[in-house]
């Protein structure tokens, strides 16, 4: 029988940590003097009390919670349960605070934050208390570091969507340098914190105020995209857009390479085919987009390159910032933005969506199939980063693509049944499953938000964000009867 105690123990600890993080917006409100601090005091006490009681009740009598390790079945359930439980408590300040959101809206906002999707139901961000704005940034920052650890520690073990190809790289490669996975996670956390501080310092140097620099640094490095303003990153312009683009690219690259870099191995960072393909894709898309802006629209070349670089990087990394309303750029570029949201960054980063490596493996498989058709008696083996790829990995990747398309269709169909128009339904489904942020159209496009959608649509999108963030299969596995019979 499945032992739920280790799962409850870990969830309790994480809920406790989430509650402890509420001290920062509590202090921000005290300093600002808007009288919102009781919201975080009350929410923090409730969250920490629940987390502590859950951890204590599940830890006692279960061998110290997780001291014996987790089975594959428990790991699947834990991975999904964490992202389902934390938004419940992350939503408390949003319901009790100045936003005065309904439970549906607050849960949607918290889920969007922790999954680093960046879709929002809140209007009037410019006038919100700083504590609530900081809390939204903290939710995304925690979600960013959480998904890196999940991508490096859990998904390769669970063999989700071809992630098993990184299993030996994440652990065996570091056998002589970092003997335990916990040490890798610790270094990744320090790198993540260091890059966030560096991003904040750059923003400060470029003229942002301290609070704006802090929150935007957290939502940049988490590729989350929550901003302190309704105009998103359009509030800032010029050099800040270039700086944000650079740090979004840093956040969308595999953090395992940064660990290798600080341990004296710089070569893998420059030889990683994922990174080369990711950067190459951005360059091509920026050139195409900037060319269209200069040719068809009255854009200065520098403005065209800047806006193209920022918005392309924001969408492909899944950050979801917007500096302009690109819905005004014409149907060709609108379709470009729709499809690049389905590309994503590198595996083992804070970026979301399908990920570059899966496209590389898919194309490698197609290339081998074509070679076999041309030379039936030849022996051709698909490769990734110079290494042969097993059939199990290719099958997993192809299954991921199939499930992604099916999920996208089902979510879009369900949204259409709630009364949404075709553009809103299909782009809403894509932005939720791919965890991108803004959709297309007047309602949920870069100049709008999700507040006007009905509650049913918001719950559908919340579930889609969770499914997409955990790479689909980690969630679908626990919905099968075989999982519970194991």
From TrEMBL:
This is Trk system potassium uptake protein. The keyword Ion transport applies. The keyword ATP-binding does not apply. Belongs to the TrkH potassium transport family. Low-affinity potassium transport system. Interacts with Trk system potassium uptake protein TrkA. The chain crosses the membrane at residues 7-27, 39-56, 76-96, 133-155, 190-211, 231-256, 277-297, 332-357, 393-416, 459-484. It is a multi-pass membrane protein. PANTHER family: TRK SYSTEM POTASSIUM UPTAKE PROTEIN (PTHR32024:SF3), TRK SYSTEM POTASSIUM UPTAKE PROTEIN TRKG-RELATED (PTHR32024).
């Amino acid at each position: 029988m499945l032992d739920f105690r280790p799962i409850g123990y870990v969830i309790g600890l994480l809920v406790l940590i989430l509650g402890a993080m509420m001290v920062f917006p509590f202090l921000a409100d005290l300093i600002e003097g808007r009288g919102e601090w009781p919201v975080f005091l009350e929410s923090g006490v409730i969250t920490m009390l629940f987390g502590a009681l859950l951890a204590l009740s599940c830890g006692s009598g279960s061998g110290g919670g997780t001291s014996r390790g987790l089975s594959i079945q428990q790991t699947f359930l834990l991975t999904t349960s964490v992202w389902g439980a934390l938004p419940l408590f992350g939503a408390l300040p949003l319901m009790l605070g100045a936003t005065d959101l309904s439970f549906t809206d607050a849960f949607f906002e918290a889920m969007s934050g922790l999954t680093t999707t960046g879709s929002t139901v809140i209007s009037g961000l410019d006038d919100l208390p700083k504590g609530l704005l900081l809390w939204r940034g903290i939710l995304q920052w925690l979600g960013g570091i959480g998904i890196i650890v999940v991508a490096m520690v859990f998904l390769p073990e669970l063999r989700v969507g071809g992630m098993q190809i990184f299993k030996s790289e994440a652990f065996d490669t570091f056998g002589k340098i970092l003997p335990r996975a916990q040490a890798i996670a610790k270094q990744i956390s320090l790198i993540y914190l260091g890059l966030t501080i560096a991003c904040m310092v750059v923003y400060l140097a470029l003229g942002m105020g301290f609070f704006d620099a802090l929150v935007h640094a957290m939502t940049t490095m988490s590729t989350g995209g929550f901003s302190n303003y309704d105009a998103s990153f359009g509030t800032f312009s010029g050099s800040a857009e270039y700086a944000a683009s650079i740090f979004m690219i840093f956040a969308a690259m595999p953090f395992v390479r940064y660990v290798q870099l600080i341990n004296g191995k710089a070569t893998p960072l420059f030889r990683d085919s994922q990174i080369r393909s990711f950067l190459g894709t951005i360059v091509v898309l920026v050139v195409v987009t900037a060319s269209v802006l200069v040719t068809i629209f009255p854009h200065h070349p520098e403005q065209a390159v800047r806006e193209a670089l920022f918005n392309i990087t924001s969408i492909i990394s899944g950050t979801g910032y917007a500096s302009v309303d690109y819905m005004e750029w014409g149907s060709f570029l609108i379709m470009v933005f729709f499809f690049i949201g389905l590309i994503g960054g590198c595996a083992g980063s804070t970026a979301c969506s399908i990920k570059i490596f899966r496209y590389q493996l898919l194309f490698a498989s197609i290339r081998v199939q074509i070679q076999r058709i041309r030379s039936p008696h030849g022996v051709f083996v698909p490769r990734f980063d110079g290494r042969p790829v097993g059939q199990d990995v290719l099958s997993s990747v192809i299954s991921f693509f199939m499930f992604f398309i099916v999920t996208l269709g089902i979510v879009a169909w369900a949204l259409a049944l709630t009364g949404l128009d075709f553009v809103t339904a299909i782009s809403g489904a894509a932005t939720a499953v791919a965890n991108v942020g803004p959709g297309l159209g007047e309602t949920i496009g870069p100049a709008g938000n999700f507040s006007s959608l009905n509650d049913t649509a918001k719950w559908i999108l919340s579930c889609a964000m969770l499914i997409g963030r955990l790479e689909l299969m980690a969630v679908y596995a626990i919905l099968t009867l075989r999982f519970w019979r194991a």
